[in-house]
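Example record

One chain of 173 residues, shown exactly as stored in the release files.
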Amino acid sequence: MSYLSERPQDSEYNPFYARYVRSVQGGDLPDILEQQRNDVDSLMSALKPGQEDYRYEPGKWSIREVLGHVIDTEWVFGYRLLRIARGDDTPLPGMDQDEFMAGANFSERAMEDLLREFNGIRTASTTLIASLPEQAFSLQGTASGFPVTVRAIAWIIAGHCQHHISIIKEHYL
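Predicted structure tokens for this chain:
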């Protein structure tokens, strides 16, 4: 299905997300999402005891919190993708990552629990994206005050995860 490998045009999303979209290597999006699941599982299973609470700098999130942030973001973007793919044109609100983090309890959750949640939401995202008919990917809605297509949201999900995988590799491990 070639439409699952079509990268969105810059006009399909808020310019803020360009770095995420561009960070995803080309290919079939469900395959990319599955590979990221494997990458996250490998990274997290390689951590030494206590390393999940490491912060590379004061004020930065711990590895555990980064994983929680990736999960929260995928929940939000998956919801946006579903609403727009189903033809709902209601403008969708933004997501304040700091507000979400303040209301989270990631530091109190076991890594195994966070990985289960990541794998669950990633399965849901991948299944939803792969199930959509081709015409759904060009549907457009509004999120955070900007027009966005279903295709762009799918690529942003992958790009956001890729961004944080890279940060974990570069700054934490």
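Notes: The chain is about 55% helix and 5% strand.
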